[in-house]
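Thread: "does anyone have the structure for this chain?"

Original post by V.I.:
We have the sequence but no experimental structure in hand. Need at least a predicted one for the grant figures.
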Amino acid sequence: MTTKQKSVLMSVLVLVLCLALIAGGTYALFTDQVKLTNHLEAGQMDITLKRIKLETLTLDTETGFLVEETDDTVVDFSEGTDKNVFGLADDAVIVPECAYTATMQLMGIDPDKPERVNNVAFSYWLEIKLDSANSSEDFADQLKVVITTKDGTETEVTLKDGKFIGSKDAPIGTVELNRPANDPETFKVSVTFLDLDNNNDVQSDKVSFDLIVHAVQATKAPTTGTTP
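Reply from O.Q.:
Generated one for you, tokens below.
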């Protein structure tokens, strides 16, 4: 009975962010291969995933200088979509030091109790997965990814390092059942093109990777002081 109940209640939210980049000269282009897909397996857990802020440091084509911009438009990624989480156009050009930071929000839905953030406790962890077969490892080594959790904990890797950040047994965040709706779970994903002496060595190289967000129903209280 316990096993059956667990299989019924267990739900998994997986966000797969597929980024395909190509470097030309000292530039890297986000091409029309960029796509984003979401998959939510049906179950007792109903979770939404939204981008609530986008911060960019990009090249101003008129001045030639890097410019900081912030977009507070809320974009919903809960359903399957081809929207780019970093808001990049197909012909966007990035140069070394360009950076994109998306603040993401995870919330459950309880239509009977809108004052609550969720209808079930859940925990989550992230996975960075490099598509080695279709990627230049040298180029991947020049792209830094930083994951920042709600409590300010940062995990920094390069795409070449592709790894799990947290796990089912040691999630990076847990959302308790009675958390108020005005206190949703958030985390940041930042991608930066590092300014290195060998930037030109990756011209015409390509790299693609997945950023996967896993969320499962939590049946154990989080352990204080646990390191992701």
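V.I.: this helps a lot. The chain has one domain: 11-197+208-217.
O.Q.: and The radius of gyration is 19 Å.
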